[in-house]
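Supplementary Methods, section 5.1.

A reviewer requested that the exact input to the structure prediction be made available. We therefore reproduce it here, unchanged from the version used in the analyses.
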Amino acid sequence: MPAWSWWRILRRLPRLLGITLWYTARTAWQARRLSPAQRPLYRARRLQEGCQILCRLMGIAVRASGPSLPEGRPSLLVANHFSALDPIVLATCWPVAFVGKAELARWPLIGWLCRTYGVLFVERARRTRSLTFVRQVQERIKAGVPVMVFPEGTTGPGDTVQPFKTGAFEAVAGLADSWVLPVSLCLQRVDGGPATPDMRRWYAWTEGLSFLRHLLRWLGTRSLQLQVRVGTPIPTADRHRKELAHKAYEQVQALYHEMLAEGLTAAANDRIFLSVSAKQTRPDTVSENDPEATDTHLP
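The structure derived from this sequence is encoded token-by-token as follows.
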């Protein structure tokens, strides 16, 4: 397992809390001075900038391939979900609004952060294709802000992508000049070395693991590298939510397994490199019956 340190947590946590509180308070104050039509995009841009700062402080590097958004009206970005920090990682790539479970609004500090940055809350007991959710998503889109959702509905252990729920796609199904953008996120390196399946499970927010313990695992690690890979935009015109969900799931799953395969290759290459290096640096074995070798040890 990776090297994990309480001292690292104690160094990082006060700084993270201080910067987060100051930055969010300033964002909330500035947002009040803007018109309601300007606030969504302002909040999304501040969220992107703030998450970039947080990732640097936490030793998280994000590598994104093809991060530019498609042309046309902003719409829905859909991604796999394995950690509570996925929104922070993905927000470094684009100014977006996230969809979160309604319980977050009641969490101390977390609820205030979510409201300040324009998170759309969804009741678990109600389907995300409700009229309220559709209206909220379309309001963000009209304001020029794409909406990011995690259609799996929960976090997974990091070994695959779970099937997508279709409710979130109702908000954009059939819209002209719009799209759904598949996004895949994968933990690739931990402390400079390739991430193994066991490491991915350790950093995943799995059932039975508290949020605090999960967060401390990330904070106590020296460095993490995550890769974000973008698929082909899926036009929403004349498409039903089930079709959009199916096509998006296929792309996100394919991209994720592609990155997993690359990680396995990198791990194998690292093992070969370490093996060769060990052989090259190992002292040569000298035979006592070799006179030339014996001579080299004479003064």
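The beta strands are 60-65, 76-79, 97-101, 120-122, 147-149, 179-190, 193-194, 224-230, 234-235. These observations are discussed further in the main text.
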